[in-house]
Amino acid sequence: MKSHFTFTKEQRKGILFLLLIIVLCQCAYFFIDFASNDIVINKEELARFQEEIDSLKKIEIEARKPKVFPFNPNYITDYKGANLGMSTEEIDRLITFRNHGNWINSAEQFQQVTKVSDSLLNIIAPYFKFPDWVLNPVRASSWNGEINENRPRTFAQKQDLNKVTALQLQKISGIGAILSERIIKYRNKFIGGFIADEQLQDVYGLTPEVIEQLTNEFTVKTPRQIKKINLNKATVDELVTIQHIDYEIAHNIVEQRVLREGFESINDLTKVKDFPSNKLEIIKLYLLLE
Description:
47% of the residues lie in helices and 3% in strands. It is mostly helical. Among the domains are: 73-130, no CATH class; 147-219, DNA polymerase, domain 1 (Orthogonal Bundle), CATH 1.10.150.320; 229-288, Orthogonal Bundle (DNA polymerase, domain 1). The strands form two sheets. Strands 1-2 form a two-stranded parallel ribbon. Strands 3-4 form a two-stranded parallel sheet. The longest helix has 23 residues, at 9-31. The radius of gyration is 38 Å and the shape is elongated.
């Protein structure tokens, strides 16, 4: 064994020299950059690649832009007006104009009322959609059975919402077969139908704009008869019979009533813990205050 591990002086020098070469090669590998600085670029291929990227960017930008569909400017809400780029003052002028029972029938009149800039008007005016009787007054003189969504009607002119059919409801802009059937189905849940127009808020899918158009043509003329509950004397079991009030809310109402020593107004219910304030108008239909 000793003969295999014993080296002469020349052999030891050779081994040392070999190790030195290995160390130098390793250092050269880690510390010397052998990469060529001359990078060959195919300009035609790069141009095609950049053009494809630009094209995809344009498609994505267009897809992300909010889409605007034709709409009647008379029914612009705060939210929609803000999305269109209108200021708060411009939206308020429009709402005030509408609250006085007036109607906008042209883009020029819209600008006169709201005082929007020419640049904004040029952007949104192409999407204005006015009813046929405004655009074609001669044709509209011969009524074809379709309901005019803009012309206000008196109570006597309106049809009874508790007797209307699904087909008649579909004449309202924004109400199709599904929504009309949903309204009828909800009405038929109660023996006697609706108590008041406010219950339309509980029909899933009806927006405030569509409800406004709907109640311009239909209203509850034969309301379902109910016995109203005295808010200041009602028990928990009586309160839970009212839509949108469960046992937890009923207990909170009674507790708040005791603390207040009675409610002075039904609107005070909005201060009750967990009370559904957005359903107050519906809940009011079942209550009285004595």
